[in-house]
Amino acid sequence: MNKKLTIAIVAHDQRKADMVEWAVFNAETLSHHKLVCTGTTGSLIKKAFEERGIKAEIICMNSGPLGGDAQIAAMVVRHEINLAIFLIDDLNPQPHEADIQMLLRQCRIHNVPIACNRYSADLMITSTLWDEEDYVPTVPKYVKFNRK
Predict the structure, then answer these.
(1) CATH number, residue 67
(2) Which of 8, 61, 79, 122 has the fewest CB atoms within 10 Å, i.e. the most exposed one?
């Protein structure tokens, strides 16, 4: 991929090990992009990359419960995020559920691709559409549907 992306990376506590494993597996690709992570997830990825001698631009926001999800959602609204990877723990309640839903909603509204599992994340970061000059994602259309 030739285009440098800004990729948001978020993982709940029970998914952090999975996210670090995914990031290390995809380190060659990720090292060419700017990674914006929630605090703890970013720290863990940074440490794993440093231990393996992988250089990458990793920016850490606050941890999710302290507003990191909201900080990343604000970046989505400002069109500063190209892709989001969010490994969600669907088996345990989250104290900051409202922030989680806000981030997911803003990605949908602003047409930012968001992967919520490793398979979709792999498909998205390897898509050839990132480098297609004549591919422009369409703007979502919110029009009233007239049911007759």
Answers:
(1) 3.40.50.1380
(2) 79
The number of residues in the chain equals 148
Model confidence pTM above 0.90: yes
- Could you tell me if residue 14 is inside a domain? yes
Residue 148 inside a domain? The answer is no
Within 13 Å and on the Cβ side, how many CA atoms surround 123? 8
- Domain around 100: 6-131
Long-range contacts of 128-133, Cβ-Cβ distance < 8 Å, separation of 24 or more: 130/1, 130/3, 130/5, 131/1, 131/2, 131/3
Q: Out of 13, 18, 69, 99, pick the active-site residue.
A: 69
Residues 124-142 pLDDT 10s = 999 999 999 888 888 888 8
Determine whether 69 is an active site residue.
yes
